[in-house]
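Subject: sequence -> structure tokens, single chain

Hey, anyone have a minute? Need the predicted structure for the following. Not urgent.
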Amino acid sequence: MTQSFDPSGKLVYSKDPEGNRLPDFSHVGYHSGEKGIPHVPVKMTLEPSQSNDTLRIQDALDKLGTLPLGEDGIRGALLLKRGVYRVAGTLTITHCGIVLRGEGSGPDDTCIIATGYDDPKYQRALISVDPQSDNLEVHIRHGYPTDQIKPIMNSRQAIMDAYVPVGSHSFEVNSASGYKPGDRIVVHRPSTADWIHSIGCDQLEPNWSEIRNARWLEDGEEAGFYYQRIGNHSKYCLLQKHDENWDDFVKRVPLSEDGKTFNLTRQWEAGDYDFHFERRIIGIEGNRITIDAPIVHSMSQEYGGGAIYHYETAGRVMEVGVENLHLISEFAAPTPGHPYGDPQETSQAENHAWYGVELKSNTENTWVRNVTGNYFGWSLVSASGKHATVQDCVSFGHASKITGGRRYTFMIDGQLNLVQRCLAYNGRHEFVTQEKTAGPNVFVDCIGFDTKAPAGPHHRYSVGTLFDNVKSEREMESRFRGKSGTGHGWAGTQTCFYNCVAPRFDVEAPPGGICWVIGSGSKDEDGSRVTPASLYYQQVQDRLGEVALDRLATKEQRKHVGKYRWVKARLKNERPPK
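Reply:
Had a minute. Here:
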């Protein structure tokens, strides 16, 4: 099977009766692929010490943040010379235009050790790009970031089209007079009760579970019911709503009369599944608005329509990179030949560093490249912001229990992000999105080994994700997960698996949604692959030309996409730490 091309060599897309089509995913990653990741000049250099390097490195990052921004939004790089650095806390980048760089990602290059274990206080990010710099416990809200987009409410204009299909770039608004080309806008898709009912997520089956360490917190902004599940070290909470009195909240908490079991299933509620897609206006004709990146979820008047707003992102951190580093988490007491912990503890250790690099939600145009990691409990890299590129990274494995809320090796829960040429060992959900992930997002030319659980959208509605030439030893899926977890419901929609390899594909779409399995099969050589070899690379070429492709991959890498030859070259001088 092949895709069709027009006379100029660009892809031609078919549409269903409502106008839905496969979206253009090419706008993801650093500056939408329209400029390459820069090589930032070094402004400060550190040598390793023989003790705790946390304050030395943090002070240097903070001093870099006082330098003036260049016209390109860059301040400069902190270079960590080859050697071992021991970090007891979190290295936090809170200013724009800063790069944290090592002299290589091999075990004998620049190695940062996240020290500390056997205490919950050590369960943190090693490196965080975070405008808030608040190092809260990562599991208090199950690790999911709050939305930091602030719509300017008096700029609202309703979308007038009866139906805006998936993949479209334009729609008519009530009045475009307050907008102009170049404006950054939010496209808001509401989640009405009728829509939630139509996809069956207000009637999920109960899921009763034994709990421990239950406590009520009545005062403060975080008032609610806190608990842990038996056999699970993650912390969970059900929070009191702002307009809810305490007695009504107590009645709402689904706790058994004896207080020993809790109904984990949370029915989806109107307003909780709204999407705010960040876009840029590239054209206006009358009241018709044309935007840069496509709509990845349909909007219909039947289910509340949609709207656009101007918006603010106070304190957003941009133009930040983390590169050429080897990151390791201590996880247990050292044993002879194993300085980071007894290998027999890797499936049990919990109280140690949880993230290697965490790109928080209010970040944009960031990158993590050529980073190798080992033994983090949750992920090597998580991208919760916008326009991040995670490139040429390797996770040699995790240290944690093999159960829920762990081993999400390369995780996206932001929008317009790219994960490219990344390798994961023994992840659970190695290439994965989380709840209410807005999209589009892309995983391309990635591979996993010793996989513990499926790859794909994990839970509670991720929209517009492309898995392109991703290979896994477990199934890939985008499906209805029902009462799983806390009521996962539909894991995702508008998901595309293109020229992927997995033992099985379990793919279905909710009512009104659509998913694609194109050229994917159980073996590399089973004849199912289609042309072009990579949908993402073809879409980049169609929009920006071959010069943009050269910024993303060499001609040799593109020639052999799906054969993963880069893995051998990437690991030639690297090995898992002892």
